[in-house]
Amino acid sequence: MGRGWILGLAMLPVLAASAEAWAEDYKPVVCKSAVTYAGAPLHAPVGPPVLAQIPKAALDPAMVARLEAAFAQAKTATKAPALTAAVLVPGKGAWERTDSGDQPPLLFWASAGKTLVAVVVLQLVEADKLKLEDPISKYVAGVPNGDVVTIRDLLVHTGGLFSANEDLKARAEHRAHTLDEDLKIIARHGAFSCPGERWRYSNTGYALLGKVIETVDGRSWQDAVDARIVKPLGLKSLRMLAEGDRAEDVARLVSAKEAPMQPAWAGAAGPAVGSAGDMARVWAALLGGKLLKQDTVTTMFARLYPMFDSGSFYGLGVMAIEVPDPDGSKSLWLGHLGGAPGANAVVAYSVKDGAIVAAALTGDGSATATANLLLKQVRAPSQER
Questions:
Q1: Which pTM does this prediction carry?
Q2: 3-17, 191-205, 358-372: range with lowest mean pLDDT
Q3: How far apart are CA 156 and CA 317, in angstroms?
Q4: H or E, element range at 94
Q5: Fewer Cβ within 10 Å of end Cβ, the chain: N or C?
Q6: pLDDT reported for residue 25
């Protein structure tokens, strides 16, 4: 149930200056309705592809050799005590590798797990059990501007809500916080903008979505993700951490920069642990039409808000990431980043490479750089000249 410390942008330090907004930095607003967006320009809508099935076969030996070498290079460069990575190429096959040293084999995905929560919410929308325009007050009381903040706002982070993990006192406690505690924190800080006006990351928004799932689906949000995604896809290692889960089968988070959190503290804001292969298969299923209707998947990428840094944009529980290439062009990744002190993760489909890549590590290294290195191995050697 706790939301402390999780941020979605893995390449930025936790509570990066561009993401901060303490109570003394703004005057809380009370809103009677949503307002027109007034932030930086949106990204153009992205039409996500419908991916072909991923064969169970391994990729060709030459590519596997390149990927193995790149994995070893990445583990050395990042100094990661534990690293899991996977590459899936539709119509061709898969490769995955985990090296956790003396640690357990599962890795923490932090905010990359938000997409699974979003998928369950959208499945409930498809089943007519809730609507994207439902106000959060229909399901949870005590949310600032709750009568006009919608489910859509929470999914895309345009609700104007403070993120309880940014409260300095709450962070200093270094523990999990319940949803009731988070509600008291965000009520004390108040809303920083009216719904729709600005984009601002809020882990508390996803904590609220977890409660919505429980109310509508009649079971815990963890059980809903398990029943609706994990079991139908036959995933063996992926699970959502429950409150109090000691995660003894998960590689320990380590950081030289800040005291790591316990993964279970993340709650619905960053719930997933597992192998890179399983996380990549979730995205293969999402883009392959196995979890949601194609129209719904298209809607997830139809309105993309600029995030903390240039080149990252947020949709309905998903991200579009423009990755610079050496020749000055940009590759577009469709996926989600995750980060917390001692953990870093990314899962994405590279439009340019026609492949899904997933990487998660412990320590202070970059999963994004690792993923980029792996994707280079998917291209024929002639393409890299």
A1: 0.93
A2: 3-17
A3: 6
A4: strand 93-99
A5: C
A6: 60
Is residue 385 over pLDDT 70?
A: no
Mean pLDDT throughout 30-59? 96
Domains of the chain: 46-124+222-379 (3.40.710.10)
**How do 305-306 and 319-324 pair as beta strands?**
unpaired
Q: How open is the CA angle 16-21-26, to the nearest 5 degrees?
A: 160
Contact 300, 315 (CB under 8 A): yes
Distance CA 166, CA 23 (A): 10
Residue linked to tokens 């490479």: 353
Question: Any residues with CB less than 8 A from the CB of 327 and at least 6 apart, and which?
Answer: none
* Residues near 197 by beta carbon (within 8 Å), at least 6 away in sequence: 34, 35, 36, 37, 38, 39, 158, 160
SS3 314: strand
Gap between the Cα atoms of 17 and 7, Å rounded: 13
Phi, psi angles (nearest 5°) of residue 361: -145, 165
Using a 10 angstrom Cβ sphere, with 0-12 exposed, 13-18 middle and 19 or more buried, the burial of residue 91 is exposed
At residue 384, does pLDDT exceed 90?
Answer: no
| pLDDT greater than 50 at residue 128 | yes
Residue 29 is classified by DSSP as: B
Model confidence at 1: pLDDT above 60: no
Cβ atoms 179, 1 nearer than 8 A: yes
Biggest distance spanned by C-alpha atoms of the chain:
61
* Pairwise CA distance, residues 283 & 290, whole Å: 10
pLDDT digits (tens, 9 = 90+) for 286-323: 999 999 999 999 999 999 999 988 899 999 999 999 99
User: Nearest Cα to 36, choosing from 221, 193, 184?
Assistant: 193
Q: Environment class of residue 249 by beta-carbon count within 10 Å: exposed (0-12), middle (13-18) or buried (19+)?
A: middle
Contact 118, 318 (CB under 8 A): yes
Burial profile 101-121: b = 16 or more Cβ within 10 angstroms, e = fewer? eebeebbbbbbbbbbbbbbbb
264 pLDDT higher than 50: yes
Helix pair angle (114-126, 203-217), 10° resolution: 40
- Three-state DSSP state, 114: helix
- 303 neighbors 42 (Cβ within 8 angstroms): yes
- Distance in angstroms (rounded) separating the CA atoms of residues 318 and 89: 20
Dump pLDDT digits (tens) for 351-368. 999 999 999 999 999 999
Token pair 């690293």 in the structure block, residue: 83
